[in-house]
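User: quick one - fold this with magnesium ion bound?
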Amino acid sequence: MGKIWEILHRPETVVFFDIDGTLTSYNYGEYHAHHELDYTPEFRDVNIYADCKRLKPLYDYIQNHDINRIFCISREPHGHEAWKSYMVEKLYGIPVSHCFYTPDASKKPQIVLDKVTELFPDIDPKSVVLMDDNDDTLGLYMRETPFCTAHPMIFMENM
Ligand SMILES: [Mg+2]
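Assistant: Sure. Structure tokens for the protein plus magnesium ion:
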């Protein structure tokens, strides 16, 4: 039996949430999961986050956790950072200043390592959980950080 669910509910635990596919359902298009304009230059001007809905199990979890210990880290190569941060604050109450972005997902482990060192220098690494829906990113996190990892489906099996 994994320990992640119990760790997530300890008050001292710090969580870094991915955004697309973790705090959103990743259904941006009309007939596709990707927005129809994805992979085109026009995509930069589309706010795909305007209609995102709150995911209740994640919302409930975040409401019951210390918001000073909740962060977002997201790959963002399309210039959508401001729209994405606005959505995360509006739907989940996560401050814009808690959202970090990189155009390159392979940089996520180093960004998290730097932030944890800066903000929680004495924390037990097993009190940090990195949640992401991307298998490659979860693997990178496991290899390149001492922290716990979790897939967002954990909230579905514990509803
Ligand atoms: Mg994702």
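One thing worth noting: The first helix runs from residue 4 to 8.
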